[in-house]
Amino acid sequence: MAKVKVIKTKEMSKLEKKTLPKMVKSLLGILPKTGGRSSSGKISVRHKGGRHKRFYRKVDFKRNKFDIEAKVAAIEYDPNRNTKIALLHYADGEKRYILAAEGLKIGEKVFSGEKVAIKSGNTLPIKNIPVGLQIHNIELIPGKGGQIVRGAGGYATITAKEGGYAHVRLPSGELRKISVNSLATIGQIGSVDHKNIKLGKAGRSRYLGIRPTVRGVAMSPRDHPHGGGEGKSGIGMSSPKSPTGKKTLGKKTRRVKRSNRFILERRKR
């Protein structure tokens, strides 16, 4: 039999380092591990812990470098989000990360401004974007930076403009009024097939910092409201509760917010 050459781990890492784009240190930040614990050391978010070390990438959601040409230097993986990010090299020498729009390629040029071309990756006010176009990274408050439609494959659609507001259909199905002066980026966010990814093994969940979920009925009564009882006796109550004792069915969880008046049509059930 012919001998099969096995590439050692050290050699493989060298090959990978050559192909991977170099990260820009000025755009990286430290991302500490919390293990789901609050400042008092108590678990505030369950099923978190472990995970691989990672840096935070400082992504530019404001896109406020107006009328300055930016060239896409690289499309990079970001461990902190479900979509890829694009590294921009601006004409004045500055470098920034943005969310990579679907179809955005290395070498392309993108712009931000009042009257830039209607092209995927460009950012401009909603008042200058035609009705029916797909947009993402949308500002709720002008100048604050994009806050909604930032996930993989997401896009919103402008359905109408009335007065100082545009009617925008969000990915959830919600129809919402947004100021026409708010900035938005043209196109759909990339990584459209992210929803089809299967982790394949338990260990991959642990790399992501997701710890196992234990059913409440399998716990003791001191650990969960559903715990205890002889055999598989169910939850032992007429209405299910959360581990903190709050009812979980038939009760609205959204607080009354000032932004409710901007919602024209609630999201799909």
From TrEMBL:
Residues 217-269 are annotated as: Disordered. Residues 248-269 have a biased composition (Basic residues). Keywords: Ribonucleoprotein, Ribosomal protein, RNA-binding, rRNA-binding. Residues 36-112 form the Large ribosomal subunit protein uL2 RNA-binding domain. GO terms for cellular component: large ribosomal subunit. Pfam families: Ribosomal_L2_C (PF03947), Ribosomal_L2_N (PF00181). GO terms for molecular function: rRNA binding; structural constituent of ribosome; transferase activity. Signal peptide: none annotated. InterPro entries: NA-bd_OB-fold, Rib_uL2_dom2, Ribosomal_uL2, Ribosomal_uL2_bac/org-type, Ribosomal_uL2_C, Ribosomal_uL2_dom3, Ribosomal_uL2_RNA-bd_dom, Translation_prot_SH3-like_sf. Part of the 50S ribosomal subunit. Forms a bridge to the 30S subunit in the 70S ribosome. One of the primary rRNA binding proteins. Required for association of the 30S and 50S subunits to form the 70S ribosome, for tRNA binding and peptide bond formation. It has been suggested to have peptidyltransferase activity; this is somewhat controversial. Makes several contacts with the 16S rRNA in the 70S ribosome. This is Large ribosomal subunit protein uL2. It comes from Candidatus Woykebacteria bacterium RIFCSPLOWO2_01_FULL_41_12. The lineage of its organism: Bacteria, Candidatus Woykeibacteriota. The gene is rplB.
